[in-house]
Amino acid sequence: MSFFKTLKRGFKGAAKAVSADSYVINGMAVNCVHCGGKHFDEGQAQMNTAGLTFLNLDWANKSATVMVCKTCTHVMWFARSPEKVLD
Ligand SMILES: [Zn+2]
């Protein structure tokens, strides 16, 4: 149920966020693994496809956060939401 709400919020946040597009998870800044970029678009994606359900990822509440690097467009997946850094 919250999937569409978070998806909408994610896109709205990405659309207006020019400077507040850096994230922290587990106390560490999220950096792009490909180019080292620190700026991302955030979105939500469902994880309950046949393949992922097979991997017993139901604990992840069937949704994941995707972080799309604004520099190189590399997509990283997180099972919980990173915190947005407001600066
Ligand atoms: Zn990148």
State the helicity in percent bands. 10-25%
Strand content: 25-35%
User: What is the average per-residue confidence, as pLDDT, rounded to a whole number?
Assistant: 77
Name of the CATH class: Mainly Beta
Element order: H for helix, E for strand: HEEEHEEE
Strand order of the largest sheet: 2-1-6
Whole-number total of structural domains: 1
Determine the number of helices (DSSP H or I, runs of at least 4 residues): 2
Point out poorly predicted stretches.
none
Q: Give the class from helix and strand content and strand pairing.
A: alpha+beta
Largest sheet: 3 strands, antiparallel
Report how far apart the termini are: 31 Å
Number of strands: 6
Q: Remind me, CATH topology?
A: N-terminal domain of TfIIb
Overall 3D shape = globular
CATH architecture: Single Sheet
Using only C-alpha atoms, the radius of gyration works out to 13 Å
Bound molecules: zinc ion
What can you tell me about this protein's structure?
With 87 residues, the protein is an alpha+beta fold. It has one domain (2-85): N-terminal domain of TfIIb. It has helices at 2-16, 50-54, and strands at 22-25, 28-29, 40-46, 63-69, 75-78, 83-85. The chain has a three-stranded antiparallel β-sheet, with no helix packed on it. A hairpin with a 5-residue loop joins strand 4 (63-69) and strand 5. The radius of gyration is 13 Å and the shape is globular. Bound molecules: zinc ion. Zinc ion (ZN) binds next to loops.
